[in-house]
Amino acid sequence: MRIKMDDLKSFTYVLAVAECKSISKAAELLYISQPSLSRFISSLEQELGILLFERKSNGISLTEAGEIYVEYGKEIKRLNSTMEHKLKELQLSEEQEIHVCMSLSASLLLAMEVQDKISKKYTGCKATFSNVMAKEIITGLKNRTYDLALGPDISEKDSSIVFDLIVEDYMLLAVPKKYKMLQKAEKREGEKYLWMDISRMPDEFIIQDESCHVRQEIDQIFEEQGKELKPKMIVNSSMLAMQTLERGMGCCFISEVFLPYLTNTENIDLFCIGKNKIKKTKTGIMYLKNKILSRQEKYCIAVLKEKIKEGEM
């Protein structure tokens, strides 16, 4: 008889039936149905070619083969538990460097605190953080330059990327006060920003080019509004759009998480937008779909989520 490595489940089920001396009681203990457990035991006996249990009117008991199966099953489960414990100890002591890239919509201010938490839990682990543009994330993950990424949802562009949502933020229209658009804005219940109908806006838009993730959302906004997009200027990043905005050269669309990068907000009005629904942007963790996450990487993801939800971005 040959025991397969994936038969830990079989040992668990047989041991439960042997201890309970009842399939129905064992099923309750294992949180499965009695018919499912009964079929599993019968299938196992057929596979092994020998009966493990003797069925009687007053209960169920182990056969001689069942006694042997239980004896070695207990030992195999014990050895497996010991192996997992030793592997966990090895993982904790192993050196690992986790490379995380963050789009410019995410702040590096949280990096140091995340690094500290990871190194305290996993002494041999170090997390490094790099700022990149959103359009660089897919390439960085695919060529293994980065293990994890933090930024907008790019999974729609590439099915090999997993996106784990953390927060949603406002997509904002940022307008220099000189355009005097405040009086044309409306108060929307439950929204922390005044709402602007972009059809009321002059064609003074500084627009990110199509290599930027946000451009797709901008195009959708204009399409929903039925307004033709006539850019005053096209730039290749949101940072350049904001710099041009601060010089009073035009209006731009930015995610709320970019606000810490604005240095001159007193001369800028911020409006929420969206015809049928207020436009929001998504921020989350990304990694390759076929990636097997280490314990350290899973912990890094958990800490990043915690800090971002605390408002550290």
TrEMBL record:
Domain of life: Bacteria
One GO MF term: DNA-binding transcription factor activity
Stretches assigned to the HTH lysR-type domain: 6-63
CDD domains to which the protein is assigned, alphabetical: PBP2_LTTR_substrate
Keywords linked to the UniProt accession: DNA-binding, Transcription, Transcription regulation
Sections of the chain in a coiled coil: none
Pfam families: HTH_1, LysR_substrate
Family statement: Belongs to the LysR transcriptional regulatory family.
Protein name from the UniProt record: LysR family transcriptional regulator
